[in-house]
Amino acid sequence: MRITKNKFLYQVTFMPKVFPVNCYLVVEESGLTLIDAAMGFSTKGILQAAEQIGKPINKIVLTHAHGDHVGALDSLKEVLPDVPVYISVRDNRLMNRDLTLDPSEDQTPIKGGVPKNLKTKASILLKEGDRIGSLIAIETPGHTPGSMSFLDSRTNAVIAGDAYQTRGGMAVAGDVKPFFPFPAFGTWSKKTALRSAKKLAGLKPSLLAIGHGEMIESPTAQMNKAIHHFEQKIKENDHVTTA
Hints:
6-stranded mixed sheet, 7 helices, single chain, globular, 15 strands, alpha/beta
């Protein structure tokens, strides 16, 4: 486990050299907001990180319902039974094993490791613009239909889940990077992910914090480059498909 600090944000990384999986602890006056719950074996490390910071975890916020983001949720709730769990209205369905799609959504099967035996239920369902302490919820579907990112209103840092990755190179969700292709393999809708990536780049964040890879300061230029690259790849693929 590795802990990296940037202002109010602590990145907690498991398996950093092999298969980095990040979760985040956001410092608030009243305690810590945990963003994502990493892997099933991550409980002890998350609790140790909070102990090192010296504040209690009093909120758990999920960017989406894939197994590498909710893995330790049940065991954390055993230790922290009164801590509320937040997830988007849409991905609450994934959390409850509902893989159906709405008519307005890209009719591609939902991918990635949706947990089969998750006992924990969400306490609060989020939509665009909702506030969780200093964080503002931003709907960024694509990796999953209900993926969310969170903007820290104090610093303009964005915690984006798997909307982007930096491991293996900066990429939008769905853009396969040969040295770390796994987030792309788990992405539901490439075109939806591209729209969400543009939405996040438009915020001009001071920091981009993601589920897999290092945090990036002043990331807008790199985000726009990744967007352009993926946009061209999608256009080329569409041309081949229709030719």
